[in-house]
Design goal:
By secondary structure, the chain is mainly beta. 12% of the residues lie in helices and 44% in strands. It contains two helices and 21 strands. The radius of gyration is 36 Å and the shape is rod-shaped.
Length: 280
Amino acid sequence: MKKRLLIGLLTLLMSVGVLFGLAACQQKVEQISIDRDDQPQSTYVLGTQLNLNKGAIDADGTKIPLNADGVSVTGFDGSVLGQQTLTITYGGKTTEFTVTVVPRFRTMEDYVYFVGESLSDADIRLTITRDDGSTIAATADSAELTITGFDSSAPAEKLTLNAVYEKDSDRFEGTFDVAVVQPEISFKAPTSGTEYGSHEEELNLAGMSVRLSDAGGDTVRNVPLSSLRAEGFDPSVVTKDHPASEQEIRIFYHDLLVGSFKVKITYSSVSAFKDAAKEL
């Protein structure tokens, strides 16, 4: 019985000694701050864990790594987007630093499409963040980037697109959002005139302009003439026996009707000369 009591007493004394030893190792310091030459990781991808393998504090002039014994870092939540303030505790003192949790794929700006447009009609630029916080810049037409899920057939306040980036050792999957809206259309008819001879085979669209915008005017697209399609121009219906025709020309952007104007085609002397030549 006495032997057991003696063993228990010795065990207790040893435990107390260990506790005092640990407390002594975590000595008190006057102040701590983030080491200027060894900054911690400040950007994290949503769903990743806190990385303490990078970064250190300055404790009374001594550099202490963040993953060292006695250093505590609290306040991080990798499941929540946005800025977070983390608290570092060491030697009875605390300091703070800020990190930001971001999605894997981020758009450089808010991209808005108009109903009927193609993915390439907006110049999408993305920032892709690696787990270590470093970034990659990519555009929608990059060979390394594949984007799926685009559909502009109807308005959508939030259209989620799937993205895969793959180059060398990097391979990342994620999503990002765009919006699709019904456009407000500003159309200006050509200034080149509306009178055509029957021998003329092409419309002159010089001076024509098409401007699309959202309801608030925040997104504006000046559509180039090369992206527009004209329908309704047919000089062949004008002949000697049918010497004049008024035709409505309709202008389309993709399949969206964006404007129209009328032209008058008359039987010309050039056409008369050609017809006479055919009768010889």
